[in-house]
């Protein structure tokens, strides 16, 4: 089988695979990414067990929230990508969460000071003023966020050399949180190795994590995908690095 034909078969398989929700099970055996050392799901479970009312912003398919062993009495989640909304509603039945479809750029559809806890894993963006508004005095915000230049090697394999990242720096998040009246009580950073064993895994990832290459389509980037396939078959798995940071803040009493 020719190298290009092999690449096209792997690409076609990845294009046919669903990317709904925010799980990455399809990549099992094909790609890996190191986990941050702080254990976000464990931290969320701990904070949820001590809250009466909680909100998960940008819940995706509800995968993290569904694993909370002791959910609060009132639990809500928001999601701005329509295909994920029904996935999240199905997933989150077990914890009794209400899933609200939202416009990502609109204010949070909740009254002032109604949550003890707000969490968010990999939010598209954090509206710090809205977060502060819906937190009760003494309430807490916990978020694992995508850091600057995440998966830069993969972005540059498709797009060519890029300028230094100007967005998603932890220091920017701290400044924005404090400007909204929150007090940052924890900030941690991590750089995590990601390994892609075949070009199909790359295609599926780029379809799902759309900000890596914002205009990605297979037809537009087939030449680069073929080059990446040749690299993997001759040199070994393609490696990139994800950056993450954990931020925790409170609304002063």
UniProtKB/TrEMBL annotation:
One of its GO terms (molecular function) is methyltransferase activity. The keyword Methyltransferase applies. GO terms for biological process: methylation. Residues 55-142 form the Methyltransferase type domain. Pfam families: Methyltransf_11 (PF08241). Keywords: Methyltransferase, Transferase. InterPro entries: 23S_rRNA_MeTrnsfrase_RlmA (IPR052939), Methyltransf_11 (IPR013216), SAM-dependent_MTases_sf (IPR029063). It comes from the Bacteria. This is Class I SAM-dependent methyltransferase.
